[in-house]
Amino acid sequence: MNSAPNQQGTNFGSQPAGTQNNNPFTNDLKGEFTSNFGGTNNFGTGTGTGTNAVSQIFKDGSFGGNNNTKYFIFGGVVLLLGILGWYFLSPSGVDVVDPDATPVAEGEEPTATEGETPAKVEEPAKTEATGAETAATPETTAPTAVAPETATAPSAGGAVQLVSPESGASLAYDETQGSASFSWSGGPGTIVFSRHSSMQPEVMRIKVSGTNYSFHRPWPGQWYWKVESEGSASEVRSFNVAPPVRRNIALTAPQTGGSLAGTGGAVTWTGDTGVAYYRVEMNQTEDWSNPQFKFSSSGTQVQLNGVPAGSYSMRLGAFSEVSGRWEYTQPIQVTVQ
Hints:
Blueprint: H1 24-29, H2 32-37, H3 53-60, H4 67-89, E1 155-156, E2 161-164, E3 169-172, E4 180-185, E5 189-194, E6 202-208, E7 212-215, E8 221-229, E9 232-233, E10 237-242, E11 250-253, E12 259-260, E13 266-270, E14 275-283, E15 293-297, E16 301-303, E17 310-320, E18 325-328, E19 332-336
Parallel strand pairs: 1-9, 3-10, 12-19
Antiparallel strand pairs: 2-4, 4-7, 5-6, 5-8, 8-9, 8-10, 11-13, 13-16, 14-15, 14-17, 17-18, 17-19
């Protein structure tokens, strides 16, 4: 080791020996470099042992007693690494932002500073819009008026089509034949019956789940019908129900003006099909609501029993299965003896 730790040399300039250096870093390091590197001029032509000064620093622990020196060396290394890192890691072409420049909001053009002429910004050329690219403006497009929805009456001749019977069809009233059948196409609907072509007033209105309906014994007369379904209505058709055909019956004995015994006298007649039974009625008045004598039979003759002598009106009645009611012949005059 050198024995002249307080020697001052001319490391950074010519300075008289023993002169106090006003640089605080120099004051803190005075004696450290001279004692470790040796000689009067460690980096010049001194005679100290400066050839292995760096290795000697780490061998003899010359920095162990001075923390400021360690901090100085460590700080210098960190600073050097920081400079190198910034140089190698920073991207090329980084714009340098003027700290005094006024920030410009997005969409705004920069304002020229004093003494500068702002560059002229050319607007892009306008192109004509064609076809679907041309949007209609509120001034040229008139709003479309929408009429409020209104309930409409069912229109004739819609989806529902009547099938049977044909308009103007006719049938006779007959309880032995069952019901009258009506059919249509177009799905379920409501069948309506009336006695008038205007369909007013309605006699019946029946909702049907299928496409046919059986009218149970429509009574005689003129009828009109139609079918309504989902807001539409079919045409109106007519049909006629004729009165039931009368049973063809007639008294054969006694004849008009004839006579017979009040007990045992025989009454005969000709019958017809579709008759449940017959009845012979006798009355001395013209009120047939409650005749004085009645004799019934399922055949074509009866015998009188207990009829007092006198003049009577006599008629023959048949309960018709076709009409479902009593049908009578015209009364004749007879004498009971």
